[in-house]
Amino acid sequence: MKIALVGNQNSGKTTLFNLLTGLNQKIGNWPGVTIERKIGRIRKTNYELIDLPGIYSLSPYTLEEEISRKYIFEEKPDLIINIIDATSLERSLYLTTQLLELDSKVIIALNMADIVERKGIYIDINKLSKLLNTTVIEISALKNTGIEHLISHIRRNEILENIHNKIYSPFIEEIIEDVKIDVDHSRFVTIKALEEDEMFSKYQNEKIQQKIKEVKEHYNSDVEEVIANQRYNYIEDLKEKVLVTKAVKKSTTDKLDKIFLNKWLAIPIFAVIMAMIYILSVGVVGSFTVDFVDARIGQFGEWLSGRLEALNTSAWLISLIIDGIVAGVGAILNFIPQLIILFLLISILEVTGYMARISFFLDKLFRKIGLSGKSLIPFIVGSGCSVPGIMACRTIENEEERKMTIFLTPFIPCSAKLPIIIVFSSFFFEKNQGLIAASLYFLSIIVIIISALIFKKILFKGKTSVYISELPEYKLPDVKYVLRDVFDKTWSFIKRAGSIILICSIIVWFMLSFSWKLEYGVDVEKSILAGIGNSLAWIFYPIIGEYSWAATVSAIQGLVAKEQVVSSMAIIAGFGEDLAETSLIFGSSIFAFFTPLSAYSFMMFNLFSAPCFGAIGAMRRELGSVKQMLKAVSFQTGLAWVFSTLVFTIGTLMMRIFL
Question: Is-contact 429 436, C-beta < 8 A?
Answer without folding.
Answer: yes
